[in-house]
Amino acid sequence: MNGRGRRGGSRVGWPDTRCGMLLGRGRAAWGWTIPLLVAGVLLGLLACGRLAIGLKAIGEPQQLDYGEPIIYSQAARIPDGEPLYQPLDRPPFTVAAYTPLYYKLAAELQLTVGPGFGPGRGLSYAAGLLSALGLVWLAARSGGSLGSGLLAGVLFVGLGFPGTVPWFALYRVDLVAEALSLGAIVVLSHGTSVRHVLLGGLLAGLAILTKQSYLAAALAGTLWLWSSGRPRALLYGATAVALALAVCLAQELTTGAFVANTVLANVNPLNLDELLALLVLLAETLGLPLLAVGVWLVRTRPWRAPRSRLLIVYWAASTIQLLGLVKFGAIHNYWIEFAAMTAVLAAFSLASADRWLRQQWPRLAAALVWLFAANLGYLASLSVEAEASGLSGAATLTGQAPTSDAEFAGLVDLVRRQDGPVLADPLDVVALARRPVYLEPVIFAILDGQGRWDPAPLVRRICAGQVPLLVLAIPIEPLSEFSWHGQPWWPPRIMRALRARMQFSEIRAGRWLYTPAADAAPAPAPAAGPPSGC
C-alpha cells in the first residue's frame, strides 16, 4: 500500500518517508505532524508521571483510598475460613460490595506474599499495564500503525486516571476487571473461531465476577457476533453469563447474603451535586478525545468495517458504568472502561483525519497543550506521602508532623492488642491489625438514614464501655458534624453515643485516640428511638 491506506479510516498505512512520522502521510504532513508529536510527548509525560506515582504508592503503608482497608479486611475472611458475604444486620457491620474474584486473588496474595496493601496494589498496577498494552495492540492492529497504538496507550494512562494517586495503584477491584474485560475484546478481535469465542466468553464472565458492573464485554461481544453468526454469539454470551451466574448463585446459596451485599447495599441515594463535579472532571480529562471520536464517527462512518464495529459497540456498551456517576459516593473509577475505549477511538480519529487535520492542526495542538496544562496539577506533587498524610489526619488536620512508618506500625500493634471491637476512621489500622472492620461508617450512615439498619445494639455496646478504642483522623467534635454532600459521614446515633462515652486519650501516629471515660455511667441506651447519648 506504501502509505496510501484505505479510505474510511479503518486502516492507515505507514508514511512514505518512513522516518520519524508515526501518523500522517508524506512530506506534506510535516507541518501538522510536528506539533501533534509535541503534544503527544506532553501526553506521554503525563502518562509517565502517573506510572511513577503509581509505583511510589505501592509501598505506602497507610491507606490511599477509603475503600482499600475495607476490601483488604474482607479478603482476609477467606484464609480465616469465614464466609466472604455476611448478613448486614449483625456485626461486623461492613459491606462486601463486589463479586468475589478480586477478594480471592487478594486473599491468596495475603497468604503467599504477606500482609499490607502493597501486594494488592501491585496486582492492580500489573493489571493496569496489561490493560494499556491491550489497548496498544487493539489500536495498532485495527488502526494500522504503531503510532495509533502508542497514542491510545498514553491517552489512557495519562488522562484516564485523574486524582493524586492513580486508580491503577490502589487496592481496588477495577483494574483487574478492566484487564479481563479488555482481554475478551482482544481475543474476539484476533479471531472468531470456537476457541476464540469460548476464551473470550470466559474472560468476559471473569470480568463480571471481579466487579458486577463490568457487563460491557459480555454485551458487546454478543451483539457483534450476532451480526455474523447467531450460534457463536449465543455460545459467547452463554459462556460469560453462565459462569457469572453459577458462581453468584453458589455464593447466595451458601451464605444467604450475596445479594444483600452486592446489590441491595449498593443502592445509594442520588447526588446531583456530586454528579456535576464529576462531569466537569470528565470534560477536563476526556473532553478532547471524546470530541475527536465524535468527529471520526460522523466523518468516516467506521462501523462498516467489522473490526472497527466491534470496538465501537464495546465503547458504546462501556457507557453502562457511567450510570453509576449519579449515586452518592461515585468517583472517577466509573469511567475507566469508557476512558480505555475512548483512547482507542480517539487514536483512530487522529490517525485518519489527514486533510481535515492539516487544516485544523493549530487549534488541535493548542487544545492538546491546554489539556496537558489542565492535568498538570495532578503531577505538581509526586509525594504519595502527602496524600497519605491527609487521609491519616497528620499535618493537614492535626497540626502534627507526618508520621513515620515505625510510628504507624506501633499504632497498628496497639489496635491488634485490644480486647473487643475497635472503631476507626480511616480503617487501615483495623484492617492491617487483622481485626474485623466492626463498623464501616459511611455506608451504614446511608443505611441508617434509609431505615435499613438498626444502630441500637452497637449504641448499647458503646454505652456499656465495650468499645475499648476509637481511632480517628480528626477530633471527634468536628467529625460528628461532618457530612459529604448532605450525607452524614457517621451514623448520627453512633456518633452521639461515642461523644457521650469516649474521652480523648492521646495522639499517636497522627491519629486521635479515644478510650471509654472512667467516670461515664455505663448504662445501656434505649432499644428504640434516637438516643441523645448514653
Q: What would your notes on this structure say?
A:
With 534 residues, the chain is mainly alpha-helical. It folds into 2 domains: 36-64 and 117-379, no CATH class; 387-516, no CATH class. The chain is built from 21 helices and 6 strands. The protein has helices at 30-58, 68-75, 101-112, 118-143, 146-159, 174-190, 194-210, 216-226, 230-255, 258-262, 272-300, 306-317, 336-352, 354-376, 384-392, 405-416, 428-432, 441-449, 456-463, 476-481, 492-501, and strands at 422-425, 469-472, 483-484, 487-488, 502-508, 511-516. The strands form 2 sheets. A 4-stranded mixed sheet has the order 1-2-6-5. A hairpin with a 2-residue loop joins β5 (502-508) and β6. The protein is globular and about 75 Å long. The N and C termini lie far apart (81 Å). Mean pLDDT is 83; it is low at 1-31, 380-401 and 521-531.
Features:
534 residues, mainly alpha, four-stranded mixed sheet, two-stranded antiparallel sheet, 6 strands, disordered N terminus
Mean pLDDT: 83
* Largest pleated sheet: 4 strands, mixed
Number of helices: 21
Helix and strand content put the structural class at mainly alpha
Strand order across the largest sheet: 1-2-6-5
> Can you count the beta strands?
6
Work out the count of structural domains: 2
- Characterize the quaternary organization of these chains: single chain
